[in-house]
Automatic annotation (TrEMBL):
<protein>
    <submittedName>
        <fullName>CSF2R factor</fullName>
    </submittedName>
</protein>
<dbReference type="GO" id="GO:0004896">
    <property type="term" value="F:cytokine receptor activity"/>
</dbReference>
<dbReference type="InterPro" id="IPR015321">
    <property type="entry name" value="TypeI_recpt_CBD"/>
</dbReference>
<dbReference type="Pfam" id="PF09240">
    <property type="entry name" value="IL6Ra-bind"/>
</dbReference>
<keyword id="KW-0325">Glycoprotein</keyword>
<feature type="domain" description="Type I cytokine receptor cytokine-binding">
    <location>
        <begin position="13"/>
        <end position="106"/>
    </location>
</feature>
<dbReference type="InterPro" id="IPR013783">
    <property type="entry name" value="Ig-like_fold"/>
</dbReference>
<keyword id="KW-0812">Transmembrane</keyword>
<keyword id="KW-0675">Receptor</keyword>
<keyword id="KW-0732">Signal</keyword>
<keyword id="KW-0472">Membrane</keyword>
<dbReference type="InterPro" id="IPR036116">
    <property type="entry name" value="FN3_sf"/>
</dbReference>
<keyword id="KW-1133">Transmembrane helix</keyword>
<dbReference type="InterPro" id="IPR003532">
    <property type="entry name" value="Short_hematopoietin_rcpt_2_CS"/>
</dbReference>
<dbReference type="GO" id="GO:0009897">
    <property type="term" value="C:external side of plasma membrane"/>
</dbReference>
Amino acid sequence: PVFAGMNGSAIENFTCVIYNIFLMNCTWQAGRDAPADTQYFLYWRNSRDEEEMECELYIKDENCRNMGCIFQNVSIGIEKAYFLVNGSSKDSLIQFYDEYIDLYKIEKLMPPSNITVNCEEIKNDCIIQWQQPQISHSNKDMCFKYDINIKYK
């Protein structure tokens, strides 16, 4: 495909992470050769049925250039989400960047909750129990692996 716009003007290092169950944070860096006045705009769509929406809460750098977006109330669907970042400058055309992302792959899980430890000195054993962390996506039956790090004092 032929991309309109100046080479090296599209954003770089686009990454997103989902945390605290329903918050998503996406960040990027300005294109290496983008003019100084370039402003970037992020649009996304959670599934094919949805309308494309612009970011509502941009993260800005010291020059008021949009360098990221904070999303609230994100729900993870079955389809890949579509992200598009385009830019504008009064000097030249800016290339766009787009990517499809499986949101469940970028979710940072919460720690397990309600951890209890019951030790019996006579039997010389301990029972450690916890509740599975909340996750935002629908596949609630996934296996979780836990590392338990026990330090004796």
